[in-house]
Structures are given as C-alpha cells and as structure tokens.
Amino acid sequence: MGSGTRATAKWTGQQGMNLMSSTLLTEDTGVPFDQLQAEQIAVFRSAWAESGHEGTPRVSVSRSVIPLVTEDDRRYFGLRALADTRDQVGTLDGGLARFGKSYIGEPDVIAEQLAADAAVQDADTVLITVPNQLGVDYNAQLLENIVKHVAPAAGWR
Length: 157
Hints:
Low-confidence stretches: none
Largest sheet: 4 strands, parallel
Distance between the termini: 25 Å
Shape: globular
Number of helices: 6
Mean pLDDT: 90
Number of domains: 2
C-alpha cells in the first residue's frame, strides 16, 4: 500500500499490508524528506507490531537516480543537478507536500548520498525511477550505469 503521510503509514501497518513510499510525501514537518520518510517507516512498523500481525513487513522507497557517466547524461541532466538535488516543498491539493530530491551526479557521490539517506537505509527495497522521455535505449543504458557504477559503490546487491 502506498503511503504519503504518517497517518496512512500507520493505517497500512494496522491493516497488515506492506508499505511503499514514493518520492512525494503529502505532509511536511520541516525535516528533510528522507528523515520524514524514515519516521513514516517507523510508524508503519510500530503499527504492524502493535496490531499483532505475523511475519516481517516489507518496505520499499523510491528514488530518482541519474548518474552522470556519459556526455549525453551530462548534456541532458547536468543543469538539473544544480536545481533538483535538494528537497522541494509545495502545495498539493491544498496542503503542504514534500518532494524528495533527485540523485543526479557522479556515481560515487550518488552512492555516498544514498548511503546517508535515512529512509533508504530503513527500507528493504529501493525502487529506482528514471525519466521516460528519452526512450527505451537511453533508459536501458541509464539503468545499466546505475547497476554498474552506483549500486556497487552503495553496497547494494
């Protein structure tokens, strides 16, 4: 079940479902995105345990990851790295929402940032999002760069 707030994370845990949290949270408490998402994960796991569900719940979080490996990568996303590599807060459906930053840059730098991301460390699975405008071939190469260059440096298997 998707979760955008601590309240929906709690409800998901009470229902005995697994938790999926994306790059958008529909609440903002003033703390960085990864910390707020980690709070939601803790609320979810606590509600799961308090409700007496058996087994271990699974948690996935999504991250936008674009390693700059080729000249095409730098041309397409280099300037975005200057603006999109920080959280953004905005209004969505009349309330504040926090959008997670994009991880754009050199693979070793991205790996360090992901290793410091509280929610990534608390999750069982990290779902990678990539832009879809550049077609299948470009995205296949982008994903290959993540597997070859970011994942090993981040300690992912």
